[in-house]
Design goal:
EC 4.1.1.37, porphyrin biosynthesis, 7-stranded parallel sheet, uroporphyrinogen decarboxylase activity, binds coproporphyrinogen III, TIM Barrel, 16 helices, two-stranded antiparallel ribbon, cytoplasm, globular, alpha/beta
Length: about 350
């Protein structure tokens, strides 16, 4: 597969936007900035649009998903849109009964725990991804030169929701399965890799200029478990995407010990959470990848001078990398004052 002639990445080949330059390791004219979970509950215009519509239904309504994606781009002037969807959308589109419970997260009616449960997981039919392709096409048509980032959940994080049946701090059942039944584990992570890879590829083919793989809960794993039981499946998820040639980002929470292994899955940029200073992350990652991060989300509520000093520190440490994209160390908390996010963008564009 290759990208069609009117794809933004093809049209912008000779003059890529700052975000894409940074992901590729070129020095952009300004430090690009966007926020994980920039679309969503921190915005009153989002809360208003979502009244009466279930979360996953909103993701599957192309007009609504597109409008929600555009809201933070208009309001904050960030350097990218991130497609409004959820990591469990490909699970839902395969026909598995999954819902999102507000304040909790994805919940499954029937958790997937045995060899028979895994064997019964239905395939994701390519036609089922039509609402995703339509929403992306609608969005890039309105974004102009601002790139859209597509995303997907990595197989481990996705599998943890399937096995636990909901959000879980330490994913004990998931990690027990990993060590108890190699065949079932491999079958489960292969299924996750296939559906999540297809979900990300659909977004990129339809117009996204970069892709981010979220392995949010990989920080629960030891380096050896990550390398042996998880990384090969993350690489597999990226296979159908790699041939499209757009830059790829890999992010997880609490993954300081895993950063180099996450790089080795084959990405251009590694996202770093707030626990590890960026210059230390660069020491662990070496010179061949860009970094993204890592404002502590807690500091969004601190007085501006405190937050400003933190941003300056993040920017300075980010200079150790071949290129740096400013972001938070995890998603925007729902109760964030959105005017603070706009102020960060203005500050970074002026000083970064
Ligand atoms: O700007 C964006 O980043 C928008 C798109 C986005 C959403 N989910 C929308 C969403 C993205 C990139 C995600 C990814 C996602 N979803 C991840 C990986 C990123 C991360 O945070 O580590 C994970 C682990 C999920 C699973 C999930 N979905 C959780 C944990 C929750 C929160 C539940 C809650 O209410 O606190 C969701 C729901 C969700 N996904 C919301 C949004 C805007 C909130 C639901 C709502 O608005 O009603």
């Amino acid at each position: 597969m290759s990208l069609h002639d009117s794809h933004p990445s093809v049209l912008q080949r000779n003059d890529p936007p700052p975000l894409i330059r940074a992901y590729r390791g070129e020095q952009p004219t300004r430090t690009p900035v966007w926020f994980m979970r920039q679309a969503g509950r921190s915005l009153p215009e989002y809360r208003e649009l979502r009244v009466g519509t279930d979360m996953l239904d909103a993701c599957l309504n192309p007009e609504l998903a597109s409008e929600i994606t555009l809201q933070p781009v208009r309001r904050h002037g960030v350097d990218a849109g991130i497609f409004f969807s959820d990591i469990v959308i490909p699970v839902r589109l395969s026909g598995v009964d999954v819902r999102i419970v507000a304040g909790r997260g994805p919940v499954l009616e029937n958790p997937v725990r045995t060899a028979a449960d895994v064997a019964a997981l239905p395939p994701l039919e390519p036609e089922a991804l039509a609402p995703i392709r339509d929403a992306v096409a609608l969005t890039v048509a309105q974004l102009g030169s601002t790139p859209l980032i597509g995303f997907a959940g990595a197989p481990y994080t996705l599998a943890s929701y399937l096995v636990e049946g909901g959000p879980s701090k330490e994913q004990l059942k998931t990690r027990a399965l990993m060590h108890s039944d190699a065949e079932t584990w491999s079958a489960l992570l292969t299924w996750c890799a296939e559906i999540t890879g297809a979900f990300l590829a659909a977004q990129i083919e339809a117009g996204a200029s970069a892709g981010q793989l979220f392995d949010s809960w990989a920080g629960s794993l030891s380096l050896s478990d990550y390398t042996r039981h998880v990384a090969p499946f993350s690489a597999r998820a990226l296979e159908p995407v790699r041939e499209l040639g757009v830059p790829l980002v890999h992010f997880g929470v609490g993954t300081g010990e895993l950063l180099a292994a996450m790089r080795d899955v084959g990405v251009d940029t590694v996202g770093v959470d707030w626990r590890l200073p960026l210059d230390e992350a660069v020491k662990r990652l070496g010179p061949d990848v860009s970094v993204q991060g890592n404002i502590d989300p807690a500091l969004l509520r601190a007085p501006w001078p405190v937050l400003e000093a933190h941003i300056v520190d993040v920017l300075e440490r980010g200079r150790a990398a071949r290129a740096h994209v400013l972001n938070l160390g995890h998603g925007v908390p729902p109760d964030t004052d959105p005017t603070v996010l706009t102020r960060i963008v203005e500050f970074v564009h002026a000083h970064g």
